[in-house]
Amino acid sequence: MHVKHAGVVGAGTMGAAIAEVLALNGIEVVIKDLDAAQVERGLARVRQHVDDLVRFHAERAEKEVARIRELGVELTESQTTTIQHRLAPKVSRARGDEIVARVRGTTTWEPFAGVDFVVEAAFEKTDIKRGVFEALDAVLPEHAILGSNTSSLSITRLAKGLGHTPQILVTHFFNPPVTLPLVEVAGGVDTREDVITDTIEFLQGLRNHRYPMVPIRVQESPGFVVNRLLIPVMAEACFALQEGLASARDIDQAMKAGAGMPMGPFELADLVGLDVTLDVMDTLYREFEDPKYRAPPMLRRLVDAGHFGRKTGRGFYEYT
Ligand SMILES: NC(=O)c1ccc[n+]([C@@H]2O[C@H](COP(=O)([O-])OP(=O)(O)OC[C@H]3O[C@@H](n4cnc5c(N)ncnc54)[C@H](O)[C@@H]3O)[C@@H](O)[C@H]2O)c1
Fold first, then answer.
1. Nearest to 311 by CA among 273, 263, 261
2. Is pLDDT at 183 greater than 90 in this prediction?
3. Alpha carbon of 66 to ligand 1 centroid (Å)
């Protein structure tokens, strides 16, 4: 599988970051959303993230030298040079510009006629994803592989009866893919075996800003591994909050300080998006009929009110 040109559908939280990961690996990426404003928002996200990264790398050595001096340690010139050498920027301005230039936006399907691999990262709704699959099926070249970033929907159902059905599978990236390397890969009933193994091999050859990507093969099953385990934790945290067991901040603090989680369940839900979290919870509940996946009314109310977490400025926490 050779991917020179890739496409991403959906320029939201995941789509923009997946496009960035692909571009980072030298792949030309076209990213589509519903209208020009959404596309621009996605491209701006890529630019902003790359800018932050370039700045971080540029300032790293200087900050480390300053930090050591603040501790009262006098550094020799050669020690300072060694630090500057070790912490030399890995992402220069020029490299950052190259990454950004590889991602271009569109609101039409035509550019997808020239891609080898597409990731669909539209809303977690069956009818929307199916519409995207049908549109892509009509335009993609014969050899193209279509990976869906769905967190919980059945890829067999989404991909049924299309020309590209044997080349459609799940490539479930994690948020944010620029730093989290896991990708859960799952074929549907009609996905060709070589498509699954080639996709895993392709993903293994990529890296994000921190690590080589880590694709794992999973069976088609709602929530795969990570969400199946994580969603009940988020739901239970919400029920505990509703009952007044502790504040959101203290529950998050407890799971970080006591269970070693890098983020608390509410911080994570706000980052993922409460709308996305609720969609995944509802699908898991519908599919498994297990009450551990039932959605807490508090979460549903926040979503009804349009408070989706970080992306809208308010979720369990407020963001300015
Ligand atoms: N947010 C997460 O943490 C996370 C993690 C893993 C997987 N996912 C999955 O990734 C997918 C996207 O999630 P997200 O958080 O990026 O959502 P998001 O709401 O941030 O972005 C979705 C984007 O898709 C666009 N879109 C909708 N229909 C479209 C269409 N027909 N054509 C083109 N664009 C369209 C929307 O305008 C929006 O910009 C979902 O399937 C979700 O379950 C999300």
1. 273
2. yes
3. 41
Pocket (CB within 6 angstroms of ligand 1): 9-15, 32-34, 38, 121-124, 128, 131-132, 149-151, 172, 174-175, 272-273, 276
The pTM of the full predicted model, rounded to 2 decimals, is 0.90
Identify the helix (H) or strand (E) that includes residue 61: helix 36-70
* pLDDT tier at 229, thresholds 50, 70, 90: very high
pLDDT per residue over 10-19, tens digit each?
Answer: 999 999 999 9
Model pLDDT for residues 247-277, shown as the tens digit of each residue: 999 999 999 999 999 999 999 999 999 999 9
Q: Among 123, 127, 180, 270, which is best to mutate for testing ligand 1, by the most ligand atoms less than 8 A from CB?
A: 123
Q: Do residue 154 and residue 252 come from a single domain?
A: no
Q: Are residues 151 and 200 in the same domain?
A: yes
Model pLDDT for residues 19-68, shown as the tens digit of each residue? 999 999 999 999 999 999 999 999 999 999 999 999 999 999 999 999 99
Catalytic residue status for 184 = yes
Ligand 1 pocket: which of 151, 153, 227, 230 to mutate (most atoms within 8 A of CB): 151
Q: Who's near 103: CB < 8 A, 6+ residues apart? A: 19, 20, 23, 29, 30, 31, 43, 46
Domain assignment present for 318: no
Residue 252 is encoded by which pair of tokens? 């998050």
Same domain, 250 and 203: no
Residue 17 sits in a domain whose CATH number is 3.40.50.720
Same domain, 180 and 303: no
Per the annotation, the verdict on 227 as an active-site residue is: yes
> Of 5, 184, 208, 209, which is the active-site residue?
184
74-to-78, 83, 84, 274 alpha-carbon distances in Å: 12, 13, 15, 49
